[in-house]
Amino acid sequence: MKIKITGIGSYIPEKKVSNTDFGNHVFLNEDGSSFAYPNEVVIKKFKSITGIEHRRYAEDHLNSSDLAFMASKKAIQNAAIDPETLDYIIFAHNFGDVNSGTNQSDMLPSLATRVKNKLQIKNPKCVAYDILFGCPGWIEGVLQANAYIKSGMAKRCLVIGSETLSRVVDDHDRDSMIYSDGAGASIIEASDDDTGMLSYESGTYAMDEANYLFFGKSYNNDLDPNTRYIKMHGRKIYEFALTTVPAAMKSCLDKSGIAIDEVKKILIHQANEKMDEAIIQRFYKLHDRPVPLDIMPMSISELGNSSVATVPTLFDLLIRGEIKNQSIQKGDILLFASVGAGMNVNAFIYRY
Known about the structure:
By secondary structure, this protein is an alpha/beta fold. It contains 8 helices and 13 strands. It has helices at 39-50, 64-79, 111-118, 137-151, 234-256, 273-286, 300-303, 310-319, and strands at residues 2-11, 15-18, 54-57, 88-93, 127-132, 156-164, 181-191, 196-204, 213-217, 228-232, 263-268, 333-340, 344-351. α2 (64-79) crosses α3 (111-118) and α5 packs across α6 (273-286). It is globular. The model has no long low-confidence stretch (mean pLDDT 96).
């Protein structure tokens, strides 16, 4: 038995924030000192490394669970199912609902429960819960749905990735420009043909790597040190990703029995354009193959890094033909992969 994605949907916030909008930000070094160069230089370097030109922020009246609800409605409609038939709602996020103007996390009740309530699902046997797995959360949710369905515990699952990272960033940290908001949702069911998931890989590295992403105080020493924001050791994450992600992707592909030349698209977490390109280069180098043209669809230039939402949103955009010069056909082999806080790494091979 295999599982397949029978419905997909995403919600991309309307508020568009360009790099130039950061021109008047007061960016500081970690010790609180000022940069030795102007913001124009900071922004130019940022664009050359990350590939990000724009990002989306949620409207003030919407929270992460609201974005997830709207993406879920689209996925349910796309799958043409009755939501009352869902056995599980698995909601991947990192910071819960964060009201605009604050950075306090609200996870009670769980965001999955909130989505179930918004969908007005009455069936008590539809179990709703959240998972915290960093940026690879949506993929991990798909792997959990796979386990439930294969074990006979479920027939149909809703897996969501949603986040409002713009509300937990330190405005004085230049890394704040990376993050964005968004949601992606998918319906997962058993496959009665040769399509669906063929293999998977997942792991957590929790020695020194556990603290590569963390909550820390603002770089502005005049602000309350007890107020915390998302922080990262970017160089360490980059080096970690270049070592572990290609290896995980190779292991996953080897398990599937699929030859690398059969892979048509690689849908990788939209974290950093240069890092993603380097990961793909290393992956193909492990197979002694050149990187095929247009193998890696990208959305980061326009949407930024919305954490758990990037991969399902990318898949939705790809299916709907909304990524320039990118398309997929029935039967194509896809490789999904992600890396993030934990540090967690996962991947799966999928026949579309």
